[in-house]
């Protein structure tokens, strides 16, 4: 098991097949998917496929979403990380996107901000990325607040598969200035 980053409270490590129960709890919750097209899973096998897909991204691109694990309890909280996006999104293709998803019972505790900041630090300091993008549903006040808090700069509003989204970017030079 590879650990990519640590924060004061969390370990960010590769997603493992053994995370299937935590992933299922996360992705079966309609509230978690409220701003994600409401595409929940209904059986654990679907979560296993998601984990397998993410693990393939590690091999293909050397990066992907990471499990967020509580240091004290060893509990799976959700995921956070950088994903290489190959499909065209807002007139961009082949770019790095930061994202996070937490089980609802962990919302409102600063976890997404803490772990997303660690992911950006890894992307810019370890991998020497030049920029990272993000998108969040316009109506998702929590996610938009997190993206701004970690230093992402709002660029524009755009349509993504029929949903109104905000587009963000942070450049390496700007991230390193705030460090």
Describe the model.
This protein is an alpha+beta fold and about 180 residues long. Helix content is about 30%, strand content about 30%. The chain contains five helices and eight strands. The strands form two sheets. A five-stranded antiparallel beta sheet has the order 1-2-3-4-5, with helices on both faces. It has a three-stranded antiparallel beta sheet with strand order 6-8-7. Strand 7 (about 155-160) and strand 8 form a beta hairpin. The longest helix has 18 residues, at about 45-60. The chain is globular. The relative contact order is 0.15.
Structural class from helices and strands?
A: alpha+beta
How many strands, which pairing sense, and closed or not: the largest β-sheet? 5 strands, antiparallel
User: What count of helical segments does DSSP give?
Assistant: 5
Strand portion? 25-35%
Radius of gyration: 15 Å
Number of strands: 8
